[in-house]
């Protein structure tokens, strides 16, 4: 037999010749090129061997998984992904067959500590309750010891198949994309990152509902595996830092969303079908992706109902900017959150300019924090992380380059925070929120070099401390910021810190200081160059607090009306607009101009209702609307609304929160009016310990005590009413002005309690004081009623004494 | 050296910075001694990472070796044992090493040849060789023959089928076109099949 080595080149030539020659001519054509029949035969042998379909013998498609996995009967194989195979399964639950999707995890992905990890994570996974996220139902080990996850089964098609199959236009695609973002943003608020977002993980059902798969699965993957995210994520959609194997954050999901959007809009992924090696090369070199319009092709345009040129121009302005921002190679250059990405897309859809200036983000952020009064701990943690990423997003670029090492440390810091925050779900909090915030203040100067940016970040953190009840530290930080802003002539920062510090002083009962600070801030905020947001909030803090002190001046009303108008004109974020409206409505309510208050409250409610994070705010509005009904005489009608406000507060900030307790008081007040005082007593007594925890023995205790004393009076429990009234006077003495209405109410209740026990002689002086003080304070219809009730009481007691 | 290196896979001593680069260049310049040293340097890492590949019971559980090698590549870059510019040599070397990993694995498993198995699973749609076949040792033997005949084609097979590179990636690394890679591999597939079936 001849050696192949001697005819190596010739064999190849003949082989390729055979490939292009029809079978009937093959012998003849090859003979023309090679006279040696043995070499020809050898070439043909190789040719025939090359055409044997060796795949025929290969195992095909689905693995031979059948029968049962755990309690689940396997119906069919659905697909195979990076970490395992998915099956459609069913199980008998409560007499009904329930279908779900079951994913068998490959052992290398699950690892030995899978069960423990799943146990740790299942709370958070099960807590993800969103219409666009498939629910995690169960997990376990199969008979053969393979770990599996059970999820809600979704009968849908992949995102790209859906969009292309229906020939959706750009507007329709953007709407679907917004649903995807909504789900991701929701998960981020719950501290879950996806890390493997791609069209095949996003299903669309026949009615157009978007469903995201595999949320949180990334957290179940063996953490100490040598096979890290690089392997687990789908490289075509993975963020550069995943490819570089650097710490992952929510910014990875933003990047992946960017790739998905790029593909949905243009028809292909950035970089086309680049090899993994090429993608890693780009990631290592921090190359920015190609511009969106460059990816447009004629068929893709046709599929979107446009000409190629039209699609290219449609994708060349704002949409190209939005996509490029998602796809920035460095996480800090991307959108700081999915919400800000959605915001820009919404602005594009509405035909407004997308936000270009990163500096404004600080302010919006701080307002976000301010609006989150009383929200759960976890959102605060997220805000700290967001803040961290925001603050170094504001770095000047050259500085960021110089301090690349620091940027990496910052990433590590954020990663660490995220990790620690997650451990809260195990019920073992590692670090308290105040500790987090203090850590943030300490670390900020290391990461933000620009003094103005640093001040903004500090104000944001101080506001977070304030919201979280850490008033002392908030005060400390704000005082520092004011000093530094004054020294630098940074009027905006000075105004913002002062008005916040002023609001804080009011909260602490230091009303004089509060008035001084908010008044000065208001003056500063009128100077040129101040952002609308600072102007609006300086006005709200000044006027709102003065209103609550009882100075219902025209100036206050005017300031609040202007603030509400400006907040809309300057497109402040919806929550800030709603908040300003709320303060205006509150002013109307205090003036008992209920007909004007009600529509403004309803406007505010409309805005709050769009935001699932604004549940507390919504509850507050319901409480106000109930109050208006109540004071217009529809007490019965106010009951369900008070109840709704109370339940809402319990859900958003807990049964012992101030908001919930206030609504409970109001609800009890309405019950007393309806002659159901015994029910009110039960509710009010139950709330007292929580009130004492919040208010100590400060005048804040006045409202709950006065409701309780009144409820006792109305149920004829005069001795208990007397005790409570006495306490009311004690907490007021030395803290509120001797002529204050609250003294009047306290003495009125005291007098009624004594009169009820037929101790008219003792009751007389209290009734006298009440009559005098409440007459002094007859500024409103409600107060007039109080005044005349006190006067009537005095007359009754005098009459009783005269009869004796 | 295979057994020794594999045994020490757990605690690989880090190579001197730049050593891998130097040896890669030597290897590429045709100094055969360099490859043994490279095997010592890189093989334990690769073996350790690839170990995860063999724990999967079914083919769909097997990971792409491309990912494994990318992982190793990044690791070495992070350790500054390798420079980014060396990636062509590195991937070629890794393809060779992966071949050795798989052969070692097949040998250690001592599996029996099956009847009606896949004689040469080098197919467009099956980008990676199924590691569990005893035919791996046979394939290794005929690949050694191929290397003597045409080292370029052997390298191509290693990249395409042992590392799971796409035809485009293989072409890019070998400075040729995708069409040439496809063309040459069609021939090689026939040749390998024939060699495996002729005693």
The CATH class label of the largest domain in chain A is Mainly Alpha
Low-confidence stretches of chain B: 1-13, 55-63, 111-132
How large, in whole angstroms, is the Cα Rg of chain B? 16 Å
Number of strands of chain B: 0
Overall domain count of chain A:
4
| Helix-and-strand structural type of chain B | mainly alpha
Question: Would you identify the CATH H-level superfamily of the largest domain in chain A?
Answer: Tetratricopeptide repeat domain
Strand order of the largest sheet of chain A: 1-2-3-4-6-5
Distance between the first and last residues' Cα of chain A: 142 Å
Give the proportion of residues in helices of chain B: 55-70%
Our Rg estimate of chain A from Cα atoms comes to 35 Å
Number of contiguous helices of chain B: 9
Question: Sheet with the most strands of chain A?
Answer: 6 strands, antiparallel
Structure characterization notes:
The complex is a heterodimer of chains A (804) and B (199). Chain A is of the alpha+beta class. Chain A folds into 4 domains: 4-53; 68-153, Phosphorylase Kinase, domain 1; 158-356, Transferase(Phosphotransferase) domain 1 (Transferase(Phosphotransferase), domain 1), CATH 1.10.510.10; 564-803, Serine Threonine Protein Phosphatase 5, Tetratricopeptide repeat. In chain A, 64% of the residues lie in helices and 7% in strands. Chain A has 37 helices and 9 strands. In chain A, the strands form 2 sheets. A 6-stranded antiparallel sheet of chain A has the order 1-2-3-4-6-5. A 3-stranded antiparallel sheet of chain A has the order 7-8-9. In chain A, helix 20 (433-447) packs antiparallel against helix 21 and helix 25 packs parallel to helix 27. The longest helix of chain A has 23 residues, at 781-803. Mean pLDDT of chain A is 78; it is low at 54-64, 221-233 and 353-431. With 199 residues, chain B is mainly alpha-helical. Chain B has one domain (2-197). Chain B contains 9 helices and no strands. Chain B has helices at 2-7, 19-28, 33-50, 65-78, 87-109, 135-149, 151-162, 167-173, 178-197. Chain B is globular and about 45 Å long. The chains are: A alpha+beta (804), B mainly alpha (199).
